[in-house]
Amino acid sequence: MNEVIPITDRTFDFAVRVVNLCKVLDENPGVSRTLAKQLIRSGTSIGANVEESQAAQSTADFIHKLEIALKEARETRYWLRLLIAVELFPDSRLRPLLNEAQEIIKIIAAIIVKKKQNRNK
């Protein structure tokens, strides 16, 4: 049986993985360092916004925070795809992170849809 990991924990763990990747990318000057800065901003923002949603003042605020997290997750997916495409880092190392970003996108999107449906009942 698969253990269900709370989205707050999952996005935190994802942020840790992004930070560790960016530490390595940041060791190289130029494009690698520039992309690392983009990736670290969006990749860590996902979990921060999910965490903020847990203290939302209303359903609308909760949805808004998760919508920001979703946008950041999509941006993170973009940077990971770009890193793979330009071969700045081994595909085998980036692919699991990209897959997790895609899973997080699906989960957050599903939470938003469900919350909007429940709000409209």
Descriptors for this entry?
elongated; de novo design (two linked rop proteins); 4 helices; 121 residues; mainly alpha
Describe the structure.
- 29% of the residues are buried.
- The longest helix is centred in the last third of the chain and has 29 residues, at 91-119.
- The N and C termini lie far apart (33 Å).
- It is elongated, with a radius of gyration of 15 Å.
- It has a single domain (7-119), classed as 23S rRNA-intervening sequence (de novo design (two linked rop proteins)).
- The protein has 121 residues and is mainly alpha-helical.
- The protein is built from 4 helices and no strands.
- It has helices spanning 7-25, 31-53, 59-85, 91-119.
Which helices and strands appear, and what pairs or packs with what?
Layout: H1 7-25, H2 31-53, H3 59-85, H4 91-119
Helix pairs in contact: 1-2, 1-4, 2-3, 3-4
Structure summary:
By secondary structure, the chain is an all-alpha fold.
